[in-house]
Amino acid sequence: MSDENVRQAYENARWLCGKSEKCSYDVLLYLKKYELTHTQRNEIVAQLTDEKFIDNARYALAFAMDKFRFNRWGRIKIRYELNMKKIPAAAIEDALAQIDETEYAKTIKMLILQRKMEAPSPFEYSQKILRYMFGKGFEPELVEGVLQTLDYK
Fold first, then answer.
1. Of 73, 65, 79, residue with least CA distance to 108
2. Where are the beta strands (DSSP E) in the chain?
3. pTM (2 decimals)?
4. pLDDT of 63-72, one tens digit each?
């Protein structure tokens, strides 16, 4: 664990963070491939955080917006994934609050209307839609509200 090894790990982690948004958890995982102590890895992450290469709140916002816009994930799934990356709860809540309510409701409606499926009854249809939307991470009460406004065909 030479100083050269620590410097190389720092430079590579810095390059990684400059290439795309990373959270401290991602960088710690990346640094495991280097033969560094736990303390050395934490010091590198702290230095990158001080230099603004890592910002967990900025990461949470970018992650939430990307997953909502491109993957069409709901808040529950986004919150779960950010928790798995050990992002602070306040940063998660701030990021989720940035999702526009109108756009969120439109996305729920769009996903329901795009989901073409056969069901013998309106109840079975709504259950299939609910399972699908829960898997995407949308809140049950919001999905049920949209389903009630739509006609079963």
1. 73
2. none
3. 0.91
4. 999 999 999 9
pLDDT per position as a tens digit, 102-144: 999 999 999 999 987 888 888 898 899 999 999 999 999 999 9
Separation CA 20–CA 27 (nearest Å): 11
| Entry field: residues in the chain | 153
Domain edges within the chain? 3-50, 56-97, 101-149
Measured distance CA(90)–CA(102) in Å, rounded? 23
DSSP state of 152: P
DSSP letter assigned to residue 85: T
What's the per-residue H, E or C state across 13-49? HHHHHHHCCCCHHHHHHHHCCCCCCHHHHHHHHHHHH
Work out the angle between the directed axes of helices 89-97 and 75-84 (0-180°, nearest 10).
Answer: 150
How far is it, in rounded angstroms, from Cα 97 to Cα 67? 14
Q: Give per-residue pLDDT as tens, 27-47.
A: 999 999 998 999 999 999 999
Question: Which residues, 6+ apart, have CB-to-CB distance to 52 below 8 Å?
Answer: none
Q: Is 153's pLDDT higher than 60? A: no
